[in-house]
Amino acid sequence: MSSLFPTYSRLPLELVSGNGTIVEDHNGKSYLDFISGIAVCNLGHAPEEVKKAIETQLQSIWHVSNLFTISNQEKAAELLVANSSADAVFFCNSGAEANEAAIKLARKHTGKSTIISFKQSFHGRTFATMSATGQEKIHGGFGPLLPSFDYLPYNDIEAVEGIGGEDIAAIIVEVIQGEGGVNPGTQSFLQAVEQKCKQLGALLIVDEVQTGIGRTGLPFAYQHYSISPDIITTAKGLGSGFPVGAMLGKADLIPSFSAGVHGSTFGGNPLAMAAAQATLETIFQEEFLQEVKQKAEAFLGNIKEKLKTVPSVKEVRGKGFLIGIELETEVKHLLDQLREEGLLALSAGPRVIRLLPPLTVTEEELQEASEKLLKVLGVSSNKSQYV
Ligand SMILES: *Cc1c(COP(=O)(O)O)cnc(C)c1O
Fold it and tell me: Where on this chain does pyridoxal 5'-phosphate bind (predicted)?
């Protein structure tokens, strides 16, 4: 019997090594990893530049408290600020903690309480972020949630325009819902959310824990839309696998997070910052992101075209390398078949196959993955036309 709480339904499969897009299991079988640790390994497994940065840091100092100056924390923050609408960064260790900081800052700064979020959203598992998550299955059994959290239907402009009241501190939104089924927000919906925040004196929090750090072909996914969030949260791809999260905010919020107001023992420690700095220096290069965009558009276009005539496929959607294939049926058995074929993919809800390859995936690997996918989804295999 395992000595672990069974909080995850684990596969009886151990991945023992990884390099780039390829991982190998304990039996020596290799796979194309289109899960990437759930949008974490954006540079693939064991990326050289990040490995070097962590190794170098290991030789000098591992951990110091935030009571001291940490110069690579400053540098990682500068990179995040230079590539977003934000002016200051607070580092923590996970996505939930980044959202927790955002919710605390929004209440502290506005002096108001209500946090509005959307149905099918996912913001984390702590009490505040669970309360912000618009999915009953996440809430079940945990007793009263935090007060003053409200949920509206996603992509529903009328619902947003109908928001009223004095007490609204913030609206928190994913520009593409990840866990909720790979649901892209529309331009007009996201602009309505921003407009409403302005009108109410509420803060716009964009949760980029999954969509940030180049995943969609831009530093942050909100940059595909003409909006300028007050707060951006990110985590998954930030440290290439080293646990780290960040909350970014605009300049006017800085006085509300003064010394002693919020903190974290581990947040932004030198090892995590070595990983984050090297990751950001690589991903936030224009040519790197341009290539991600091109590869991803070609891949998405190709599978859309190929799956058009498959009756069980309802829709193929997404942005960059966050791709969802919605089926008429449950997808669990298909994920098992894909794994048999050597392709690791994920679900997003019961009926959506989610693909999250490393941003460094090669054209050949994309070709190979699309062939496996088409085979499992029952498309006759006259060689894929991809590339
Ligand atoms: C994964 C995720 C979180 C939670 O991040 P953790 O690191 O697991 O706490 C929050 N928001 C979104 C959009 C996510 O995808």
Answer: 95-96, 122, 207-210, 265
CA 147 to ligand 1 centroid distance, Å: 21
d(C-alpha 200, C-alpha 370), whole Å: 46
162-202, pLDDT tens digit by residue? 999 899 999 999 999 999 999 999 999 999 999 999 999 99
Enter the CATH code of domain 15-21+33-46+286-376: 3.90.1150.10
19: helix, coil or strand? strand
Residue 122 assigned as binding residue:
yes
pTM of the complete model: 0.97
Give the three-class secondary structure for 311: coil
Active site residue 236: yes
CATH of domain 48-283: 3.40.640.10
* Domain residue extents for the chain: 15-21+33-46+286-376, 48-283
Residues in the chain with pLDDT values less than 70: 380-387
d(CA 132, CA 111): 18
- Predicted pLDDT of residue 1: 87
In this structure, which residue's CA is closest to atom 15 in ligand 1? 210
- Residue 95 marked in a binding site: yes
Q: Output the pLDDT for position 371.
A: 97
Half-sphere exposure of 348 (CA within 13 A, CB side): 28
Sign of CA dihedral 84, 88, 94, 97: negative
Query: What is the atom index within ligand 1 of the atom nearest the CA of 174?
Result: 13
Taking residue 114's Cβ as centre, other Cβ atoms within 10 Å add up to 21
The burial class, CB within 10 Å (0-12 / 13-18 / 19+), for 350 is exposed
In ligand 1, the atom with minimum distance to the C-alpha of 235 is: 7
Q: In 201-285, which ranges are continuous DSSP H helix?
A: 270-283
Joined tokens for residue 213? 């750090």
For residue 235 and ligand 1, the question of a CB distance below 6 A is answered with yes
Which ligand 1 atom is the nearest neighbour of the CA of 236?
Answer: 7
